[in-house]
Amino acid sequence: MGEQLQAVDEFAGRRVVRELGAASRLLRGLMTPPLQAAGVTQAEYHLLVYLEERGTSTGKELSCRLSLDKTTVSRQLAALEESGSIARTTDPSNRRSHLINLTDAGRERLADARRRTLAALEDRFSSWPAQGLEELADRLAAFNDQLRGEQSEPAEGDPDAPGLRPAQPA
User: Fold this and answer.
1) Where is this region: Disordered (predicted)?
2) How far apart are CA 66 and CA 146, in angstroms?
3) How many helices (H) and strands (E) does the chain have?
4) Tens-place pLDDT, residues 40-73
5) Which of 27, 110, 120, 129 could share a disulfide with 48, CB 3.0–4.6 Å?
6) 17 three-state secondary structure
7) Dihedrals φ, ψ of 125, to 5°?
8) Is-contact 80 44, C-beta < 8 A?
9) 43 with 76: CB under 8 angstroms?
10) Helix axes 42-54, 2-38, angle to 10 degrees
């Protein structure tokens, strides 16, 4: 029985990897045209979103949190600074580091990019019920937290939702 369970788990794992890979490619393809129309790259968009959600950050934190190479983050931050979307100041507690903040221009660029990308997503998912999208978002957040090694809290109002809480030791 244990071997049979292991084979099922291997198949499920392969399927998760395959489906997430396909979803990533499809989502990138869907998001690229509206982001280009807003004058924002995928990497810039994710940096702007993170800065909007979290506030002040450092390049190292952005690199770690978004799982991006430091060189990629540095290049994107330089472009965002040149466009006036972010401002960098020297970190008073570590003069070798910079604190990065979203500017008003960055908020405007992000709002434009978000409006365009949400319109593309709404077009594709108009037949899905809002609750289905919320459940998908909750599960994806829990999945990503698990990949990061973080614990997820169950979705509000759904304390027994499977996959939203790390397994408890037996």
Assistant:
1) 145-170
2) 14
3) 6, 2
4) 999 899 999 999 999 999 999 999 888 888 998 9
5) 110
6) helix
7) -110, 20
8) yes
9) yes
10) 100
